[in-house]
Amino acid sequence: xxxxxxxxxxxxxxxxxxxxxxxxxxxxxxxxxxxxxxxxxxxxxxxxxxxxxxxxxxxxxxxxxxxxxxxxxxxxxxxxxxxxxxxxxxxxxxxxxxxxxxxxxxxxxxxxxxxxxxxxxxxxxxxxxxxxxxxxxxxxxxxxxxxxxxxxxxxxxxxxxx
Length: 162
Known about the structure:
Keywords: Chemotaxis, Hydrolase. The chain is α+β, with helices and mostly antiparallel strands. It has two helices and ten strands. The strands form two sheets. A five-stranded mixed beta sheet has the order 1-3-8-9-10, with no helix packed on it. Strands 2-5-4-6-7 form a five-stranded mixed beta sheet, with helices on one face. The protein is globular, with a radius of gyration of 15 Å.
């Protein structure tokens, strides 16, 4: 990887300035949330695993949850010079990776992650401009801060930009 490409792990977040790229792999039920300031071209990516920190006893890592991870990423971006009023979002992931005999909501973590992500973005007045969520397959995503495009790679479902 070059000096402008940053890999984001699970329950992790990073920011990049143009011409930086942000990559995360292994989005199954997890959701990758990209935030992008269209004016400064500062971008951020958080790879969340669960919807709400309040529902977990082990919630010390704020980046693990939609409710605290998105807010932490916004703070990181503002500290780097982004302006909240120009931030938009794109999301990917939230798949149902394993079939369950009983279609219990508690087991469908991917859907719950997507719903929580959208609720948090709405509560923070961050427009969601594009998404690639759901299904039963994993994703790898790469965000390019230079052009604002999110590349989504999947096995068996091809490659696309959103």
